[in-house]
Amino acid sequence: MFHDLSGDRVTVANDAARLAWNDTLEAALAHAAATPEHLARTLQADPDFALAHATKGLMLLSLAKPELVGAARNCLATAHAAMARRPVTRRERMVAEALALWLADAPRQAAHRLEMILEAHPFDVLALKLAHGIRFMLGDQAEMLASLRRVAPDFADSHPLAGYVNGCYAFALEEQGFYAEAERTGRHAVALSPRDAWGRHAVAHVLEMTGRADEGVAWLGNSRNWAHANNLRFHIVWHLALFRLERGETSEVLRLYDNDIRGEAADDFRDIANGASLLARLEYAGVDVGTRWEELAARAENRVGDGRLVFADLHYALSLLGAGRTDGAETIARTLVEDCHTHPSGERREAARNGALAAFGLLAFHEGDYAEATRLLGAARHGLVVIGGSHAQRDLFEQAYIESLIRSGSHEHAATVLGERIARRGGSNLYAARRLAMLRNRPIGRAAAFAVAATPIAIAH
């Protein structure tokens, strides 16, 4: 009988598979680039390890690529065949059930099935991490935190993976606005597990949302802390770029974009989202981004028909619009309208409803119809959490809304929104402060709206 790092029984055939599986668990929690390698070693040591096959399927679905759905189905079939040959624990079978639910377009039920494992196995870090990831993709912030609140406090610091669990807990706290508790928990997570890229990233979120750019630059000052990570390392640099942009250091932001954020030009939706949202922010700051949109749009063009995650769809549309490729963006927007009525997944229908408003709002903004952009982005504004992603990531749509208000001449409303933004960030936000200052000093008339909107707000190029 074999047990994993958390003491839960695993039905592996030999100790080599157990050791490789433990490496897989740690790597997955660390967002390590070596995770697939460790998983492959596990299955090489024990090809009939059903839990590993089911886990691989769930990881494939988390990439939100339609071409990987077939491979995920194969993982489920292989897991079922393995379970027919070798009895497994109820806990392991439930992971396969979660995979089956997600494949059946029921990701929220999949997350719930994984969380049910924690009722009997509260230290099952795999179930915890997988459920955390699905909840994040669905925008289920309250459930994401509730799940962690039930189990995270019971992880003693002596547990070998306690730091990573605290990192998840910190992120869930931050997304629900518990910033002080999130920061304490995240810093503790990194102290316990220095490889906890997710926990380090959670603290960066706190510093972003509380307007502490200087502290953010210091916190992310050493890239060796996340050099082991998969493409999460690009996202962490994206956070560093946001802090640099907040300080007006746009030349450094462009350098980070070219060398790190888009250094590998991958087409993973998270990488495209990093690039597109940063380029849009730079343009709102009056920075000429050159031809950088073209590379993103070329990647996004191949993803127009994906339809796996609304968060991804909107960033594909944004990339296409940045390069002036309106046809693909319109296709995405119209597909979202169709999906909100007919898609078999309730989660997709709900997200597509709000996503369609945002997509058409971005189109209107691109076409210069700022009043319509204001109407559409405003209608989507409070419902976009269901598309997934974080508050910091979705803030791009808030900035687009503010820009639309200003350019349509709704200055008083814009000033109100900007004031609220500064208050939420502890009284410090360069983007909002500069816009407010220009609005207060504006001349009267519609032409002033375009003058304000066209004024660069960056302070160093």
From TrEMBL:
It comes from the Bacteria. SUPFAM superfamilies: TPR-like (SSF48452). This is Tetratricopeptide repeat protein 38. InterPro entries: TPR-like_helical_dom_sf, TTC38. Belongs to the TTC38 family. Keywords: Repeat, TPR repeat.
